[in-house]
Amino acid sequence: MPLPGWLARLNRSITNRVTKPLAGRLPGFAVVTHTGRRSGRRYRTPVNLFRSGDGYVIALTYGRDRDWVRNVMTAGRCEVRTRGRTIHLKDPFIVTDPSATPIPSAIRPVLKAFRVIDLMVLKESPPLDP
User: How far is residue 24's CA from residue 15's CA, in Å, rounded to a whole number?
Assistant: First the structure.
């Protein structure tokens, strides 16, 4: 079971505002920019992002039923800001992997302790033309 919904709401309203400026610069963190599937608004959400093979993996610490996850899945793409650079990603899919195989081994025990088993896997892509 991922982290509880009440904690996600608390993070969205308080913690994310503090961490967004840092998340785009620190290793293992990123800020996902995505478009609301109904509102069309642009949103920014801090996440845990890791390189894996020829793509990237995001640990779904609050589960697969979060709005940002649905937005990225519906759009089929997003961009992330990590370590001071922007990366365009596409073709998201979600895997359930209790062992968190694509995640760095040092991080796996933390995800296991929080019972995080869902991961979003994405491929790098060129930016969209404006």
Answer: 15
17 has pLDDT over 80: no
Q: Is residue 47 part of a domain?
A: yes
The kind and range of the H/E element at 19 are: helix 16-23
Beta-ladder partners of 118: 96
Q: Are 92 and 122 in contact (CB under 8 A)?
A: yes
Q: Which of 29, 41, 121 is nearest to 73 (CA)?
A: 121
Spatial contact of 39 and 19, defined as CB atoms under 8 Å apart: no
Residue 45 CA: distances (Å) to CA of 5, 12, 102: 15, 8, 21
Domain limits for position 113: 5-124
Q: Report yes or no on whether pTM surpasses 0.70.
A: yes
**Residue 82 scores a pLDDT above 70:** yes
